[in-house]
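Moderator note: this is an archived Q&A kept for reference. The question asked for a predicted structure of one protein chain; the sequence and the answer are reproduced below.
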Amino acid sequence: MILFSEFIATFFMINIICDKNDSECTFFNFTQPESARYSLWKSVTDEVRGGKSSASISNTTIDGVDMASFKYDLVPLPSGACFAGVVSLVTFNADSYDGVAVKLKRTGKNEWFKILFKQRYSYEYFFKAPEYFEEIKFPFSDFKPYHWGKRVNTTRSLDSKCLHFGVQIFGGVYEDYKQSGNGSLEIQWVKAYKN
């Protein structure tokens, strides 16, 4: 029955409205694997442009604590371009909130990642991931619109009423640094917050 319900959820999409009276709204609590719903995530990689990078998200346990493991393998194209990520199929309405906080850490040599929300454009926030678990806050006002890895010149800002949360690693073709190879981002939870 779970597979059928997940098919229905995927087909019709799940919309969650955060309570405006609460100080925080949990998007994902991966420390409780029974509520993680990993089947409601999809991989988004450079395969759409002929690349060979890969990405997945699944449960892992570290020191007795369950969490999500975003695993990737970045394989640069001759131009150096590559990306690998995962995006949730769940839509969140966090209209009265100021941003999202994520408790995470990285493994592997690659340091730069981005949190993104898929809308008309991909609204992205680049960050350097820590080697040890930290809570990082990402204000909605600091997300910038991108299309195919390039910044878009638009006045349209992130719509916090329609959020599809995602995480991505990239090769850095437009940056001063380059990234490749495999690693992971371990995530305990994702929450919308108010200042």
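Archived answer notes: The first strand starts at residue 14 and ends at 17.
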